Amino acid sequence: MPLDIGTDLKDKTLKPNNELIIKNNIFDPSASELTQHFLKLKMKHLKYILIIAILFTFSRCSVYNFTGTGKIDAKTFQVNFFPNNAPLVEPGIDRTFTLTLQDIIQNQTNLNLVKTGADLTYEGEITDYRISPMTATANQQAAQNRLTIRVNVRFTNKRKETDTFEKTFDFYYDYPATQQLTSSTLSGAIKVIFERITQDVFNESLAKW
After folding, report:
1. What is the reported pTM?
2. Cβ-contact 203, 209 below 8 angstroms
3. How confident is the model at residue 81 (pLDDT cuts 50, 70, 90)?
4. Which secondary-structure segment (H or E) carries 143?
5. What is the pLDDT of residue 56?
6. 146 forms bridges with which residues in the sheet?
7. How far is 167 from 133, CA to CA, in rounded Å?
């Protein structure tokens, strides 16, 4: 018996296997493919539009930091060596602090690190390194010790002299008094302290932009 596509199927759409469309008594096996092709073209054009918009945005700016705080009106920075002038000298922390400060600026901005003539310059010295007891037990023995490191930082901004400053930054690390602050324990403590201090230096000098 022949297929009767009369008034019952008029203006109805059947989609077996998502391939065959019956609409107004007309079979159109290619309609689904045309729809997919049209959608692919739209997505392709949208992708190009987004790429152009992003490139245009960056082309209008100088340098951005990655913390989302805005444009930095500078292209280069330098971090001079921070000597350890603390009364109690712990070998190697001067180099560690210098490299940690370099790293945080490189990781959070796309400023270029240079040795001389930078737009932004960081310099200074480690002024204090001390271990002191924090709390006492019933036997008057220290239950915790605290390692404190203080760093004096001079920041120079050639592009905007009003942002130039000299300021002291410090942080601490508490540990059990029964524990010796040596080897990996000491390295971990210094890492925690320097990460906090360098982040504070970064925020003071660049994050406000």
Report:
1. 0.67
2. no
3. very high
4. strand 142-157
5. 47
6. 132, 174
7. 26
